[in-house]
Specification:
By secondary structure, this protein is mainly beta. Helix content is 7%, strand content 46%. The chain is elongated.
Length: 475
């Protein structure tokens, strides 16, 4: 073998040895790094989900198991100082952490880029109506002082559950079990949903209800068995807490929507009615209560709404906002707006015949009619009626025999036999009771409006009271 060849072979051997040595050193360094526990405050866990959701509709005493993966995505080992089931031994939930069944475990090490399994089981008797509707808990993780948690949610009573669901065809809901909405529920194009008396519809946080174009919603409650729409938290703290869910959207093109004897409460808004002045009533709403809303009770955009015997109370925005014209007829309406959860800057009733285009210019549309007969519009602001119009379109409104809180009164053609700034003397507005008391100036100040009974089914007679409630003398 020549000298050159021998030298080349020796050089290759040295390079290979150096590479192997560097590989061994790098591997040893990497292994040492992975074996070292990272105690920095930046070390955090990641999870397969931030919420473990038990979406089973329970039919018997049930036990459902789900799995949570807890990841250490860091380059070093970490020690989780505590994994704890918040509800402890009293929780409906049981957890198993890598084979250990306990409500709390401590000093759990997870290798770099490794994970551990937590199995979660919930055991609930859904037929026990003393249970809360929604059973919640959480698993808490403390790592280097960082607190993280994963929410646990299950249904504590037997219910129909809908999560981001679209209804198709002709649907009928009865009152045998409540309906729980998570995310959204949509009535699909050309479909219809009818809700029978006594039904209860509960919404999880930020959930909403939508009715698509060419679809319709008919809420057919009765005096004895109204249909309820509210948040799914029923414990005392949430009973009168507004803003727990989003609201009900009647989208443009939907048709012949009906609410009769409904109760809509504790949402971010009540009903959003969007239409282009259809010839038939887009929304007929009777004997319905909308209360404790962070925003607007009824927002109607160039819509067509007829209403009798409705009560709208305590809204952080307007109780009724009629925007961009339309056609409206409200009879025997009570608005009592004593909102106190934040500063309210909007009048209880807003009517305007214009809106803004995409460039910020005002565009008008005819307000064909905004009629308020035998109505009470009152609240804790000095001005509870705001009228805003452009001369380029019709602005036709009328208050016919009403009790109004306002500083402004125009033509007698627009205000017929109205009482101004007289306290209606509600029974207990702080408790959402807007019936009128025995000394109310609204008693027998109305005229027949074709609404024979009040929201409680009381006969009105020939001299009806103003508002949704007829005063009944105590025997």
């Amino acid at each position: 073998m020549g000298t050159f060849a021998a030298n080349l072979i020796r050089m290759i051997i040295r390079v290979v040895k150096s590479f192997l040595l560097l590989t061994i050193i790098a591997f040893s360094f990497s292994s040492c790094k992975k074996d070292k526990i990272d105690s920095s405050s930046s070390a955090r866990l990641t999870f397969s989900s931030d919420t473990i959701f038990f979406d089973t509709v329970f039919t018997t005493i049930g036990s459902v198991t789900q799995r949570l993966l807890v990841y250490n995505s860091n380059d070093s080992k970490i020690k989780v100082s505590s994994i704890h089931l918040s509800g402890g031994e009293q929780s409906f939930y049981k957890i198993n952490i890598d084979g250990v069944s306990a409500t709390t475990v401590t000093d759990v090490e997870i290798a770099a880029h490794d994970s551990l399994f937590i199995f979660i089981r919930v055991t609930i008797d859904p037929n026990n109506h003393n249970n809360p509707l929604v059973v919640t808990d959480s698993i808490q993780f403390i790592t280097n002082g960082n607190l993280q948690d994963v929410k646990l949610i299950a249904w504590g009573q037997d219910a129909w559950f809908y999560k981001n669901k679209t209804l198709k065809g002709t649907i009928l809901w009865d009152s045998l079990k409540p309906y729980v909405i998570y995310g959204y529920l949509r009535v699909d194009t050309a479909a219809s949903l009818t809700i029978l008396p006594g039904s209860k519809v509960y919404f999880h946080k930020n959930a909403y209800f939508a009715v698509s174009s060419e679809a319709s919603l008919k809420v057919n409650g009765t005096l004895e068995h109204p249909v309820r729409f509210q948040g799914d938290r029923l414990d005392p703290f949430y009973r009168d807490l507004p803003g727990q869910w989003d609201g009900i959207y009647l989208e443009r093109g939907s048709k012949q929507n009906v609410f009769d004897y409904a109760i809509i409460k504790n949402g971010s808004f009540g009903i959003f009615a969007d239409s282009i002045s259809p010839p038939d009533p887009f929304l007929t709403i009777d004997n319905t209560i909308i209360q404790n809303i962070t925003g607007t009770g009824i927002y109607a955009y160039t819509s067509n709404v007829t209403s009798t015997n409705c009560v709208i109370g305590d809204c952080g925005g307007a109780a009724i906002y009629l925007d961009f014209g339309g056609n409206y007829n409200f009879r025997q309406l009570t608005i009592g707006n004593y909102w106190s959860s934040s500063v309210r800057t909007t009048s209880s009733l807003v009517i305007r015949n214009y809106t803004y285009d995409t460039t910020g210019n005002k565009i008008s549309n005819a307000l064909v009619q905004a009629y308020f007969g035998n109505c009470i519009i009152y609240g804790n602001e000095d001005e509870e009626i705001f009228l805003d119009s452009l001369n380029s379109a019709l602005f036709n409104f009328r208050f016919d025999h009403g009790l109004l809180r306002t500083k402004k009164m125009g033509s007698s053609m627009n205000y017929i036999e109205c009482m101004i700034n007289k306290d209606p003397v509600f029974v207990d507005p702080l408790a959402f009771n807007y019936a009128i008391d025995s000394i109310s100036p609204a008693i027998e100040k109305g005229i027949p409006m074709g609404v024979a009974t009040d929201i409680k089914g009381v006969e009105r007679g020939l001299t009806p009271d103003l508002g949704a409630y007829q005063y009944v003398k105590k025997q």
